[in-house]
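Continued from yesterday's entry.
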Amino acid sequence: KECEQLEREFNSSENKVLKNSISRATLSIKKKIVIGLSIILLLFASFFAGVYTYQTTHTKPTPPVTSPVTVFVVDTGVNPEITPGVTGEEDDLFDYQFPFLHGTLVAMVLQKENIGYKYKVVSIAATDKKFEVSPDSLTRGLKRVLSYVEKHPQEKVVVNISIGFSEENSDLRLVIKKLNNHKNVIIITSVGNNNSPEQIYPAVYPEVIAVAAIEKSLFELGTTKASYSDYGPYVDVAAPGVVSFIDSRVKGYTRLAVGTSYAAPRVADLAAKIFLKNHNLSKNEVIQIIEDTADP
């Protein structure tokens, strides 16, 4: 009975006014909470939209505008989507169905090593009509480099040639000599991958730095000659001959490519960095530093 009495009193007109006031206050508070939450959500959305915009607009790699040092990759050409920042003419940058062309992998080594140094990397596609590199097509590619050097005689230039042939070519020999005659040009070449002392051109020429490949030793600490690398008295230095890359065609798996082709650009990278550190060094001084500081 007491409960019924209290209920009747609460339902009186006076208490109804109180109830309505409480209801209105509750609705007002709920509205403020909803508005507050909406503002917070909008702020979060704006923040993340800003982050996404920054990532998409500011992380697009752009090539260095100017640099006192240029590294030329005279090879098959490169895929600009995989090696962003590598410059070149339209015919030197292309996207084949198989994106990891030889030149792209060579450029990837330079790209990984170039972080924080900012020397220019320029692609020269030295291929023939079958998109293969021959002595004649390599000669034509090197003549393009020679033309650039003649127009920019004060610029430090490193030429990477990760290609070789078992037979000599007189035109190739001549253009190598002409490039070497320029005081600011260093030519880096790879040797062969046949585990033999055979002579590979142009690596055998005295005007170039011939690079063999090394790998980690399985039986002792340190490194040893890579099992596939050529060797011989014409070899000047050696470097790791492996490059890793993510192959999107195989569910993004990391793959490895090995060869002296990927040892040469590591030496080219070193030459470019030495030039950047001390622009007054001559090319002979840079070559001497590379050879003298190499582990015997």
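--- second protein ---
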Amino acid sequence: DAVQLGITESFAPKLPVICDGKAVRLLLDIPDQRKNSLLTVNGDLLPFRCHQSPCAVSVILDHTEYRNIQFQGSKGFQRVELGLHAHSDRVQLSAALYHTRFADYIYLADTGVVEHGTPVRAWTQNDASFSGAEAEATFHLSHGNSGDWDLRLFGDIVTAKLDGHGTRQIHLDVPHGDHAHHHHADLPNSGYLPRIAPARLGADLRWSLGNWRASAGATHHARQDKVADNEAITAGYTLVNAQLAWRADGDDGKAWEVFLDGRNLTDRLARQHTSQLRNHTVLPGRGLAFGIRAWF
């Protein structure tokens, strides 16, 4: 079925987009409760028009966005995915590899131009490819008088690159008082896309006994050095979290829970590479939260 998407964030073009895709999935049953899947998707993004002025400039805290968004025409994507799922009494495992190609992918490019002391970024589009992998495994370690113990391991990685060659030139008219400053910038048609999440690798140990449950885990976010032109590298970091809770279930699905959560227990300095404000803000430091939750 067709799905209408509305991008309403203040920093993004307000573009109503109709996405109509078709998918064919092939499932192959293998003994011992293992399954492989091959998924191919071919989709079309139907023509769309912008419902705002052809050219707009926004100042977003640490940068200026230039939008010359006269995007029209037919867009499309192709996706291939290979997945594996296996489970037994003690282990559950899932993994997937995927590759997606987008025609005229829309993204926010760093132009290298600086105005009002802040960098200028421009909404533009080009062909792009995303390749990635993700995996998760849960091991049921113990079940008995001491409670249920589970260990979960997970990880994911994605690489996003432009599919073209050479460069293209764009022209920028950035307002400055009662006049405009004219700039031009050469944008690459190849290389990495900006603000792509780095690889992650993590582990959680979970315990439950009667009304009690607890967990502790760590997630490592790798250093992101596969960056676009004029984009800074973001250092890696590891976040350690823990939780303890006691839950009481009532009638008709009602329940309440007392909890104690600990976040970033090692108090690491962490910046999200996907955030446009990462040069000015960091993720919260060490924190403890105590509270009561209710379901009714």
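The two ends are 34 Å apart (CA to CA). The chain is about 0% helix and 70% strand. Will compare against the first tomorrow.
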